[in-house]
Specification:
8 helices; 6-stranded mixed sheet; two-stranded antiparallel sheet; globular; alpha+beta; Glutaredoxin; single chain; 10 strands
Amino acid sequence: MSVMDDPKVAAAVVEERRRNEESVSRHPVVSEEEWLSQRLALMKKEKQYMRLGDELAAEVRALPWVKVEKSYTFTGPQGDMTLKDLFGGHSQLFMKHFMMEPGQEWQCEGCSLESDHVDGLLPHFEHHDMSYVAVARAPIEEIEAVRKRMGWKFIWVSSYKSDFNYDFHVSFRPEEVKAGKTIYNFREHRIGPETYTLSGHSVFYKNAKGEIFRTYGTFGRGSEQFMGVYGYFDVLPKGREEYGPHHSLPDWAKVHDQYE
């Protein structure tokens, strides 16, 4: 049963949506001159925000690297692959850790929403010496069924045959979950008793000698930077319209073939 099936939660969502609609309908209206004055003032803050973003991105690129010494096996539609194979001739690999366990009957709305952004960007990624690959622990047959149903073209492989997901702290063994000994987003993070996988991103670099290094990783809300849909929602009068108990993506997002 979903938390949204709780009558109290559903009523609270309806009330929060009503208040937001009412707030939008009562929004201040001013002359064009006054609007322009306030818009220019806000633009100064936007420019500051962009400059800070540039500085932060530079710090991300300046992080020291960690060499990947362990060998991992991944399985694609054509058979087994190594981590080096996932680079596909490029020196940079951007990896999406997709939240999908073996036999999972539900589909992660957040991972699916992010994945909807990717296909149109693939030619730009390729031109920028970057390979994009999604990885999940589910067997490749289950992955392919979802990928084909969604109409996605990007590469999506299974890590079921190796410890990759566990080593990168996006999947968790039952005994770890039971003991509360789980690490996520680089810190100790207690997860739900029935949750054995989470989402995130890792970035790798392969040098001319074929050595592979982990250069960056981000998890949790750090993933929002890869979902351009928020850029559109955040400038709308109604905003993101996240009204449910989480006040986040699960409150509104659905797999794209499951909207009303």
